[in-house]
Amino acid sequence: MSTKDIKTEKKDILLKVRDLKQYFKINRHTTVKAVDGVSFDIYKGETFGLVGESGSGKSTTGRTIIRLYDATSGEIVFNGENIQGKKSTKDKKDINKKIQMIFQDPQACLNPRMTVTDIIAEGLDAHGIAKTAEERNNIVYDLLETVGLNKEHASRYPHEFSGGQRQRIGIARALAIEPELVIADEPISALDVSIQAQVVNLMNKLKKDRGLTYLFIAHDLSMVKYISDRIAVMYKGKIMELASSEELFNNPLHPYTKSLLSAIPLPDPDYEKTRVRKTYNPKEDHDYSTQKPKWVEIKKDHFIYASDNEVKKYKKELESKEKMSV
Ligand SMILES: Nc1ncnc2c1ncn2[C@@H]1O[C@H](COP(=O)(O)OP(=O)(O)O)[C@@H](O)[C@H]1O
Ligand SMILES: [Mg+2]
């Protein structure tokens, strides 16, 4: 793809997810609705944050998109092409080259008997990207450097690294074949705060340089706030609210979004003194006895899962805020 294409296609949809469901049948009586009807678009070149507490279905969403699972139902369209349902080995390989995932637990996906070079070059080899052994090594060295490691690490084995370093190897491996979409599943959660910023900067640089698109998964909003163009807030298998980062932080409407926002500490002592942590209590915060919630675009590009009465209430909230800011 030329740079011109990237520019003109900036607002183009790279990934379209519609009413995606992923149910796990535990036994005859129990089904876990890990993902229960989510819809969103990811635009080319953006960082799309997916946020929610542990168990809300974020990883399952990512794993279903990358086809580790077949979806229970719903639609996944990548670059205009449906990637759900039965696929040939070749199609799966193509999808794999274009969508890569960085996992939460790098230990689980780094083969302990392979050198770092072979781990990172696995995708290069599978897709025949490096033409010579020298090129292969150079790509690996470059990747090691960009993730904060170096040449000397190339011949070592995963157990010789710290958790944080292993996470970097996982990132280097995912980025090696220059995918279009990277699904990063809490890639920085295990890292020291100083290293988190380095990795985020690296990811942002790679995004710019290579026209990458990210689905960035996190359990809180503190880092996602700074790196995402748009954010979806997930709770118990459903997306509660979706808007641009700016809109979500200026005009959060859903009580669950507000509770996540209230959990972010700020380096401002005055603010910290007055910061009140809101807890989300669905039974108290909603009355869905007569009106069921649905997915509504409450304002341009701002979506919310709400009942009709709540939509009215939220609209008033938005209006009074607008008046205040005039
Ligand atoms: N392979 C699986 N089999 C059964 N249940 C699963 C499986 N994967 C995830 N779950 C369940 O689905 C829910 C969502 O999990 P997950 O997607 O990992 O959430 P998150 O990444 O937001 O923490 C949880 O209740 C989890 O226990
Ligand atoms: Mg997870």
Please state the structural category: alpha/beta
CATH level 4 superfamily = P-loop containing nucleotide triphosphate hydrolases
Low-pLDDT regions: 1-10
Q: Report how far apart the termini are.
A: 44 Å
Shape annotation: globular
**Portion in strands:** 15-25%
Quickly give the CATH architecture. Answer: 3-Layer(aba) Sandwich
- Unique ligands: adenosine-5'-diphosphate, magnesium ion
For the record, the CATH class is Alpha Beta
Strand order of the largest sheet: 6-7-8-3-9-10-12-11
Give, in order, the helices and strands. HEEEHEEHEHHHHEHEHEEHHHHEEH
Which key features would you list for this structure?
disordered N terminus; about 325 residues; alpha/beta; about 25% strand; binds adenosine-5'-diphosphate; binds magnesium ion; Rossmann fold; single chain; 12 strands; four-stranded antiparallel beta sheet; 14 helices; eight-stranded mixed beta sheet; about 40% helix
